[in-house]
Amino acid sequence: MLKPAPQNDPEDPSPPNLRVVAAGRRVSASDRGDQAFRWLSLACSLLVPLVMLAIGLQLLQSSWPALRQFGWRFFFSQEWNPVLQEFGAASSIYGTLVSTLIAMCIAVPLSLAIALFLVELAPPKVSRTVGSLIELLAAVPSIIFGMWGLFVFAPFMANHIQPLMGRTLGFLPLFQGPPLGIGMLTAGIILAFMVLPFISAIARDVFQLVPPVVKESAFGLGATTWEVTYKVTIPYGLVGIIGAVFLGLGRALGETMAVTFVIGNAHRISASLFAPGNSIASTLANEFSEATEPLYIGSLVALGLVLYLITYLVQVVSQMLLRRMYRSWSVGL
Amino acid sequence: MKLRPPTGRRLANLAVSIWAGASALTGIAILFWILYVVIIRGIGALNLSFFTHLPTPPGMGGGGLANAIAGTLALTAGATVIAVPLGLLAGVYLAEFSEESKAGDYSRFSANVLMGMPSIIVGIFAYTLVVVPLGHFSGYAGALALAILMLPVITRTTEDMLRLVPNTLRESALALGAPRWKVTLAIVFRAAKGGLITGILLAVARVSGETAPLLFTALNSPYWFHSLGEPTPNLTVTIFNYAMSPYPDWQQKAWGASLLITLGVLLTTVLTRFLLREKKV
Lengths: 333, 281
What we know:
The complex is a heterodimer of chains A (333) and B (281). Chain A is an all-alpha fold.
């Protein structure tokens, strides 16, 4: 960036990189203009963290009545009864965590394999086209995933995948029960497709950033592509890959519309992944605009607060890891 | 030369290669499956009255979603008007003035975090900020929620694009005696124009397909709206309501609206990606 020579002008209060503008001038009208411009842009850029903070405070304030009423019980109770004004977040939190867990179990191996394909295996032209198409998957709006999930993918699961899983893995309680199509498993799978482009995009960067010398020396020793990936690339870029996984995790936790369409929206915790459930985001999407009693709204906002805190934490970890990786790599080997 | 017999190592390599290829194929297959379904089911719903008429009650047939199309455009435009100037200026600070500043670090970090914030949370924020004090749902709340989602995207792309402008350009303008604000707005912005427009279009495309932040801010309505001060009809919430209804003609309309949204968002994305690539080369 600009680094003009510092001038020792005790009269001039402007920061060093602006002083060059005023050099040799008596009238400082444009200097004042510059000051104003700088402050204005600073104010706009501070708006971003401010909004971030304001969201958290506002959620805390609006959910306070409900949190005070229910206390710790709110987080452990499965009861969700608007008529009796009894609210507990357990089933929503459980559904959020389980659907996200399913999504990550599928999305992480899939996206790492895609990144491997794009960087190491595909010829440049194929890699570019395939990469763009995968990126395009990230641009498909959430509600479109929901429409496809509800009307096409859920029946597909009910007719083909779930009966098959029931026959082969049915001895586990996880895969028992009627194949409804909609439910926790379908929601998790669709979530996996939605976060896959985010993880694979960063994993691709990570694989590409590994210095060729490091990889070539392993290839020179006779290692296969898989051995280079497994023993060199992945350990080398581990911080970045974990950052990418956390980024996808954050996305999956808060994904709303697609999940709302297919998760089934039942306030209960079931052992079977075939059974309908709910998540924090789907509960909010379904019930918020219909809630009228203050305690009901407060409880819903409290759910939102829980989601805010979880995703905030996950995002911060992800950003710290990714920043550490890019910083250490820009310095070089 | 004789091929060596396959060893365990080479078989493992082969298996991983196939797995990688299959994964890439899966990703693409999902994309095309979704596009195929949306086009096949949506195309039948699109006709002239879809674009010119108000919705009809279920079972009556005919009618359209003209109000929702206009509403989505109005909400997106409202969000753009709020977010673009703020985002551009925030990006200017990060790219031009934030050298070694703590404020710049915080802002950049928060922008990245805010980009990953679930959009439904932003919807609740707009609800508590606008809907609760006003006492009724309103398009302004929806536009605000969308603007908050756009802000970090525009901020970060603006910063990236301005950083691509070579420093010699700034220095030569400063050497001619131009003040810093003029250098930024007249010289650096002009040099980065293509990239900035691309960033804004990408942000617009992203928020125009958003549903969750509108559910309890703009809500929805089957009528024309006169200003953003009232519940505002929009395509995405209409899709949600119609898809969840038991009426076949409403579900058909939902597919039509899905096709419209998908085409709009994907075409904008593809077009801007293409422009951006041209720019970089």
